[in-house]
Amino acid sequence: MTRHPVPGAEGLVFALPKGRILKECAPILAGAGIHPDPDCLDESSRRLRFGTSDASVDVIRVRSFDVATFVAFGAAQIGICGADVLMEFDYPELYAPLDLGIGACRVSVAAPEGVDLGDPSRWSDIRVASKYPNIARRHFAARGIHAEIVHLNGAMELAPGLGLSRLIVDLVQTGSTLRANGLREVETIADVTSRLIVNRTALKTRPEAVGAWIARFRAAIARRAEARAA
Ligand SMILES: Nc1ncnc2c1ncn2[C@@H]1O[C@H](COP(=O)(O)OP(=O)(O)OP(=O)(O)O)[C@@H](O)[C@H]1O
Ligand SMILES: O=P(O)(O)OC[C@H]1O[C@H](OP(=O)(O)OP(=O)(O)O)[C@H](O)[C@@H]1O
Hints:
Elements: E1 12-17, H1 20-32, E2 49-51, E3 57-62, H2 64-72, E4 78-82, H3 83-89, E5 94-99, E6 105-112, E7 125-130, H4 133-141, E8 146-151, E9 167-172, H5 176-180, E10 183-192, E11 194-199, H6 200-205, H7 207-229
Parallel strand pairs: 1-3, 1-4, 7-8, 7-9
Antiparallel strand pairs: 2-3, 4-11, 5-11, 6-9, 6-10
Bound molecules: adenosine-5'-triphosphate and 1-O-pyrophosphono-5-O-phosphono-alpha-D-ribofuranose.
């Protein structure tokens, strides 16, 4: 694919999450008319910024949590990330106009299989391991429970068995990770899919460019839905 110069002040930077959502994003990007350099989808590539078939758009590939941060601070104007990440950060600078319908899972509370946790309405304090400290804290606070959060970046499932916490708050899709680690889902906090996100200031100051991309993604999602229904 032809290399294009990086976008100048008028160009847009599109933040994509590396990891499991990246491949699911590709057909949606193509439907919206963004064709990144093939290296972008090759997880073994060490590059982080890629040109696209549109000389005015570059793609960056960052961790899922960091997509929200790049877009919130205006370093990227558009991006794709899970609703879990949006809930966790709650950045006022982010506008999430479109549910892309990919990366479906849920944020749930889980506990050790076969352990009686007692009556949750009687809990006052509980220790919870999660990579979503804000979601977890808010969830328990809304029930009048003070949650002491142990912030982990992965392998939360180990925490209850090793006495690090009584509960975990993590993503669940099939439930096989919980089962494989002797845990059960206790409660769903929120259903999750991936969203198109934009920086609110960029949308205000460059409504033609940013608004046009939102419209293209909206049309691409509608076409996918029609094709699935046919
Ligand atoms: N099991 C799953 N099924 C469906 N979607 C998921 C699942 N796990 C995560 N996701 C979605 O994919 C996003 C990215 O998850 P992924 O596992 O690729 O990255 P991560 O492990 O959170 O990031 P990192 O590798 O940077 O720590 C999550 O924020 C969520 O929206
Ligand atoms: O219910 P399941 O279908 O088992 O999916 C849930 C698992 O998927 C995610 O982890 P991932 O595979 O992304 O690995 P990670 O721990 O590196 O984030 C999530 O953190 C759970 O561990």
